[in-house]
């Protein structure tokens, strides 16, 4: 143009920042060169020239170029230097334009332009644009990579250190400079010192810094120090970090697996000889050896399972370059995991597979074309597994599963978790809760294996059985550690598979009779001697941002139960469970309706009748009740029916069904549930049922503030225990009924002023 429009430098600076943020470095450099008239006109106007040709500049006089850049705004010059620094170019140190731009920025004092200096340092130390993967390990090594950039960054940081007004923390950048210059051990030590005093860094920044410190120790061959640095990071933390630690070599994995297998076999054999599997952890060795065994066990499993994430990260970076997109593996029953999402069958490509040393060649394999509509999902899964194994082989990664087999790997994991569970049980009463933390980490090990191999369990019955065994082990250890999300997730899966009301009953008992583990609450930390470590470990019990609390699990189970009940409206267990949720939420009309429906589904079962009576009586005490007397009468009616059904199941009442005709109840099943006609022959069980009925009668009148019948019922319940021996009274259900009745009776005596009678009841039935 004869009279080109004036360029707004502020807008140009903002545009350059946006392009750099979007990682459009070549476009940013080309734009700044053209607008600052740093590119020859014939090449700027050539439409057929490639980007790499446009970026090459051969000035006749570098001094003229330096003078021209001095006349440009320093912010624009700094953006140009940052963009050119991020473009892969082995001869960047000889580029006069880049050197001139760098010198122009450094001529300005760091006291006034420290932000531009730090911007240059961050660009010089960035990992993007590096091609330092070795052929043997095929993993990034930062030592002696872009050494010239590290020297320039060290020069700028030296200038910034002498700036007293600078508030930025330079320690991390200095450590990365030392790493690039080959001083790996000094860099690792400086990163560890920075972790001890992080300043105002966020949790994500500290997580990435910890991974970098471990990578430095691994690079110099100190894997034990790397394990120590990564010991406080969970598998999910490692997955969410920007940089993954490099994998162990095949020899290291094989050696560590053999060492752990020998320790596990020796420990379990010694425990079997001693016939004390509950203390199997004591046969490992001393406390230090035991904790060292736990750390090695977790490190090996974490390292093998992170291969799924490593392949995803490497495939994603390669896919952004030149590879075609790969379709996800679709499954009707489960969500694809990391293995299947990146190894599914893709479209056919005309390019042959790259046999060179570049990491991108693994995505250029000719994928099979989609089969006809008669093809099954199992064929896609098999092809995905084949591609996944090729990816691991291409990156030089060989897992324990590849070397020793899936069964050997999973057996080692299960036996290791058994030893950890024994240790957790032995330290259950410890104030430090170290056993609970170890159990939570063992559950995490099981869960990440189950998550990464969802489709494995679908196509192989042997592996499916082993995965279910591992899921049951995770369920039991998670229950002891009070990881409710894990517990109820597996219970829901069991309920979906079996459809039995007994499994739903087990889920209900766990849901309504347990709470969070002691010491997990925030108020428990003030009395602990290890409050700081416990705060960190407690955060690891979260799963992808969700809290592993009882309340969170309660909400999940409620949603699941409602969805299942909509699909199976005549399921007795689900109906009763949803009614429990309603009464806990104080939604008494809905609770009465659901309990009544459960009673109609099993009219000869005592529990729905008792629950319906409880719902009516609770509804009568509500402010929303209109006809309170009617609600009380209905509650007492169902309570009477509960008494008759319960005593009949104890064999204390005759089976008179002449007046019990379910067919007259409009749509009820004529047949009874298989457990409704069960009659016990155990005299102690009969006594427990009698005491239960008496206690529930007393509790109902107690809630209605009708104290005389309540006292009589409580006394009748306690009189049943007088004829029992001391050993018979130790049964759990008898202890609960006896102490509850005694406490309520003592409370009523105390309210009436009979302190001596209250003390006598407590002395005879509660104190031990």
TrEMBL record:
<feature type="region of interest" description="Disordered">
    <location>
        <begin position="319"/>
        <end position="363"/>
    </location>
</feature>
<dbReference type="InterPro" id="IPR019734">
    <property type="entry name" value="TPR_rpt"/>
</dbReference>
<dbReference type="GO" id="GO:0000127">
    <property type="term" value="C:transcription factor TFIIIC complex"/>
</dbReference>
<dbReference type="GO" id="GO:0006383">
    <property type="term" value="P:transcription by RNA polymerase III"/>
</dbReference>
<keyword id="KW-0802">TPR repeat</keyword>
<feature type="repeat" description="TPR">
    <location>
        <begin position="691"/>
        <end position="724"/>
    </location>
</feature>
<protein>
    <submittedName>
        <fullName>General transcription factor 3C polypeptide 3</fullName>
    </submittedName>
</protein>
<dbReference type="InterPro" id="IPR039340">
    <property type="entry name" value="Tfc4/TFIIIC-102/Sfc4"/>
</dbReference>
<dbReference type="InterPro" id="IPR011990">
    <property type="entry name" value="TPR-like_helical_dom_sf"/>
</dbReference>
């Amino acid at each position: 143009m004869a009279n080109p429009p004036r360029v707004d430098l502020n807008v140009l600076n903002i545009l350059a920042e946006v392009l750099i943020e979007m990682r459009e470095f070549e476009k940013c450099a080309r734009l700044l060169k053209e607008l600052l008239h740093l590119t020859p006109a014939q090449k700027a106007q050539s439409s057929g020239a490639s980007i790499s040709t446009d970026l090459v500049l051969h000035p006749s006089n570098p001094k003229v170029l330096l003078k021209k850049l001095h006349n440009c705004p320093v912010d624009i010059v700094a953006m140009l230097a940052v963009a050119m620094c991020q473009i892969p170019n082995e001869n960047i140190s000889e580029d006069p334009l880049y050197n001139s731009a760098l010198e122009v920025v450094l001529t300005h004092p760091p006291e006034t332009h420290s932000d531009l200096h730090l911007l240059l340092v961050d660009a010089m130390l960035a990992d993007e644009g590096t091609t330092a993967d070795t052929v043997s390990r095929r993993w990034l090594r930062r030592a002696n990579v872009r050494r010239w950039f590290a020297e320039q960054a060290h020069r700028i940081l030296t200038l910034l250190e002498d700036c007293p007004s600078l508030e930025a923390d330079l320690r991390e950048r200095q450590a990365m400079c030392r790493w690039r210059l080959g001083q790996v051990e000094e860099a690792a030590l400086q990163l560890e010192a920075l972790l001890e005093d992080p300043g105002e860094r966020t949790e994500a920044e500290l997580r990435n810094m910890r991974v970098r410190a471990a990578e430095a120790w691994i690079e110099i061959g100190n894997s034990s120090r790397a394990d120590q640095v990564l010991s406080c990071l969970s598998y999910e933390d490692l997955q969410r970090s920007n940089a993954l630690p490099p994998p162990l070599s095949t020899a290291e994995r094989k050696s560590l697996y053999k060492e752990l297998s020998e320790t596990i076999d020796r420990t379990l054999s010694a425990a079997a000889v001693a016939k004390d599997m509950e203390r199997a952890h004591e046969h490992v060795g001393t406390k230090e050896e035991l904790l060292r065994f736990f750390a090695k066990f977790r490190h090996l499993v974490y390292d093998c399972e992170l291969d799924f994430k490593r392949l995803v990260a490497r495939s994603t970076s390669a896919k952004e370059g030149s590879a075609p997109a790969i379709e996800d593996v679709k499954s009707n029953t489960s969500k694809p995991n990391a293995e299947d999402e990146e190894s599914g069958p893709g479209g056919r490509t005309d390019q042959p597979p790259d046999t060179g040393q570049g990491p991108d060649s693994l995505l250029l394999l000719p994928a099979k074309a989609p089969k006809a509509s008669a093809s099954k999902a199992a064929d896609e899964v098999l092809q995905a597994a084949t591609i996944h194994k090729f990816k691991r082989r291409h990156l030089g990664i060989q897992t324990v599963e590849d070397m020793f087999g899936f069964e050997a790997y999973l057996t080692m994991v299960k036996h290791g978790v058994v030893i950890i569970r024994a240790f957790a049980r032995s330290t259950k009463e410890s104030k430090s809760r170290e056993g609970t933390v170890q159990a939570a980490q063992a559950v995490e090990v099981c869960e990440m294996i189950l998550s990464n191999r969802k489709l494995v369990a679908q196509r192989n019955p042997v592996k499916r059985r082993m995965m279910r065994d591992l899921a049951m082990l995770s369920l039991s250890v998670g229950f002891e550690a009070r990881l409710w999300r894990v517990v109820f997730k597996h219970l829901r899966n069991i309920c979906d598979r079996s459809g039995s009301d007994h499994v739903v009953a087990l889920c209900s008992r766990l849901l309504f009779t347990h709470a969070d583990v002691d010491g997990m609450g925030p108020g428990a930390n003030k009395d602990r001697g290890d409050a700081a470590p416990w705060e960190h470990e407690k955060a690891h019990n979260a799963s992808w941002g969700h809290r592993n609390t009882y309340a969170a699990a309660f909400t999940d189970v409620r949603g699941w139960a409602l969805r299942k009940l909509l699909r199976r409206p005549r399921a007795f267990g689900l109906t009763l469970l949803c009614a429990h949720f309603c009464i806990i939420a104080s939604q008494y009309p809905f609770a009465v309706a659901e309990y009544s429906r459960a009673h109609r589904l099993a009219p000869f079962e005592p529990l729905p009748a008792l629950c319906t009576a409880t719902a009516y009586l609770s509804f009568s005490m509500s402010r929303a009740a209109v006809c309170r007397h009617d609600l009380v009468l209905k509650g007492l009616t169902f309570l009477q029916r509960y008494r008759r059904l319960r005593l009949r199941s104890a064999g204390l009442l005759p089976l008179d069904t002449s007046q019990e005709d379910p067919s007259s109840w409009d749509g009820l099943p004529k047949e009874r549930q298989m457990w409704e006609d069960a009659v016990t022959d155990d005299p102690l069980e009969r006594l427990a049922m009698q005491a239960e009925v008496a206690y529930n009668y007393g509790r109902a009148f107690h809630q209605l503030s009708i104290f005389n019948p309540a006292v009589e019922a409580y006394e009748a319940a306690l009189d049943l225990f007088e004829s029992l021996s001391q050993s018979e009274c130790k049964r759990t259900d008898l202890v609960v009924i006896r102490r509850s009745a005694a406490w309520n009776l003592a409370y009523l005596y105390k309210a009436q002023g009979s302190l001596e009678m209250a003390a006598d009841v407590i002395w005879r039935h509660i104190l031990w």
